[in-house]
């Protein structure tokens, strides 16, 4: 079965994508910020339209928003889902949905000031029923069973950017990686969060991240066996032309770092999100417009893990060249692509045949 899927993926990436693949679009016009699977549902956060979830059982979408009067906020950055709860991050604290009671509540944090309530990353660890909350300032560990919150300051060498969190990813059964605006923290779960020996840090000094730029801001992390892929932000100005140089970094978990950037075929060096299928890495790319200090979407790219060959994806009647691809999730048969213009579903189970029409129906 694995060989069959691998062959299909190989054929898929050696054919004309725009003429062979049928892409379904949902939530047209919504600015998608996160895509999270959860117990026969697909949860989607948006910046401006609240939260959506899709039921694979009933083939229906549901929206939580001010428009529907079932949620008093529409601007979300991130999501996490457990069997009983949904957590969603805003600039005004953490929103919590109790599935059994069908009721929302909100948690605000005292430490960190106003920016301490800007929740930019969430990660639920099913193995010990805990939630990690990455805030603009400080990290919070939440024991779901005990309902106990614990704030953690991980500032390194008085650099406050090392305590500004952007992404959190679980690595196997013992490690968790925390991407910040100035490097990445690694936590060993076997030692406990209060143990200083449980924490280590990688910045961009010396050989780490090739020593590129003045700082390295981590936007996403992807684990791939013996390798770790890092998506990094591009942020440069005329006064600081090498502040955050961006690009994708491939790390062998030992000493070797490899950077993939415009020199290798990417259109630009800003990277929103990463995902993988077989021997391919998917990447949502953007360029940083120095004059306006604005991120401009540059679509979706595919990287061959073996050859490092880079290809740009185009879906025919859908403009991907100016699209922000901000979230990616592969469910085993479909790649879900979250953009600033809506949600796309790209079926990958049988790319050479006429793909069966999805049973999903557009919510909008």
Shape: globular
Estimate what percentage of residues fall within beta strands. over 45%
Structural class: mainly beta
N- to C-terminal distance = 36 Å
Under CATH at level 1, the class stands as Mainly Beta
Number of strands: 28
**Average pLDDT for all residues:** 90
Tell me the CATH architecture. Answer: 7 Propeller
The number of domains is 1
CATH homologous superfamily heading: YVTN repeat-like/Quinoprotein amine dehydrogenase
Largest sheet: 4 strands, antiparallel
Instruction: Tell me the helix content.
Output: under 10%
Low-confidence region ranges:
1-19, 351-364
Oligomer: single chain
Output the strand order for the largest sheet: 1-28-27-26
Order of helices and strands: HHEEEEEEEEEEEEEEEEEEEEEEEEEEEE
Give me the CATH fold name: Methylamine Dehydrogenase, Chain H
Task: Report the radius of gyration as a whole number of Å.
Answer: 20 Å
Treating each run of at least 4 consecutive H or I residues as one helix, how many helices?
2
Characterization of the model:
By secondary structure, the chain is mainly beta. The protein has one domain: Methylamine Dehydrogenase, Chain H (7 Propeller). Helix content is 4%, strand content 47%. The chain contains two helices and 28 strands. The protein has helices at 2-12, 17-20; strands spanning 23-26, 32-37, 41-46, 51-55, 60-64, 78-81, 85-90, 93-98, 103-107, 119-125, 130-135, 139-143, 148-152, 165-171, 175-180, 183-188, 199-202, 218-224, 227-235, 244-251, 257-260, 270-277, 280-289, 294-304, 310-312, 325-330, 334-339, 342-347. Strands 1-28-27-26 form a four-stranded antiparallel β-sheet, with no helix packed on it. A hairpin with a 4-residue loop joins strand 23 (280-289) and strand 24 (294-304). The protein starts with a helix and ends in a 17-residue tail after the last strand. Mean pLDDT is 90; it is low at 1-19 and 351-364.
């Amino acid at each position: 079965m694995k060989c069959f899927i691998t062959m299909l993926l190989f054929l898929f990436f050696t054919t004309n994508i725009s003429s062979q693949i049928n892409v379904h679009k949902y939530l047209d016009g919504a600015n998608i910020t996160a895509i999270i699977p959860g117990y026969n549902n697909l949860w989607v956060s948006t910046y401006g339209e609240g939260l959506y979830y899709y039921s694979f059982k009933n083939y229906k979408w549901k929206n939580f928003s001010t428009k529907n009067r079932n949620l008093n906020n529409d601007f979300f950055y991130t999501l996490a889902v457990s069997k009983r709860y949904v957590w969603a991050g805003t600039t005004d604290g953490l929103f919590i949905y109790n599935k059994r009671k069908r009721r929302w509540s909100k948690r605000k944090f005292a430490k960190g000031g106003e920016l301490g309530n800007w929740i930019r990353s969430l990660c639920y660890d099913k193995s010990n029923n805990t939630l990690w909350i990455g805030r603009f300032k400080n990290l919070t560990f939440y024991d779901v069973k005990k309902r106990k919150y614990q704030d953690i300051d991980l500032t390194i060498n008085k650099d406050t950017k090392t305590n500004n969190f952007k992404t959190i990813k679980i690595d196997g059964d013992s490690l968790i990686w925390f991407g910040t605006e100035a490097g990445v923290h690694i936590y060993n779960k076997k030692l406990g969060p209060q143990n200083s020996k449980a924490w280590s840090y990688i910045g961009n000094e010396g050989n780490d991240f090739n020593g590129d730029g003045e700082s390295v801001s981590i936007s996403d992390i992807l684990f791939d066996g013996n390798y770790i892929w890092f998506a990094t932000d591009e942020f440069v100005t005329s006064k600081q032309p090498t502040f955050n140089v961006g690009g994708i970094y491939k790390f062998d978990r030992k000493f070797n770092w490899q950077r993939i950037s415009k020199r290798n075929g990417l259109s630009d060096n800003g990277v929103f999100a990463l995902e993988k299928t077989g021997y391919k890495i998917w990447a949502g790319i953007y360029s940083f417009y120095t004059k306006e200090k604005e991120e401009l979407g540059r679509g979706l790219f595919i990287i061959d893990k073996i050859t490092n060959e880079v290809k740009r994806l185009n879906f025919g009647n859908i403009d991907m060249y100016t699209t922000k691809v901000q979230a990616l999730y592969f469910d085993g048969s479909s790649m879900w692509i979250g953009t600033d213009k809506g949600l796309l579903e790209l079926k990958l189970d049988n790319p050479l045949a006429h793909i069966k029409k999805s049973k999903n129906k557009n919510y909008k």
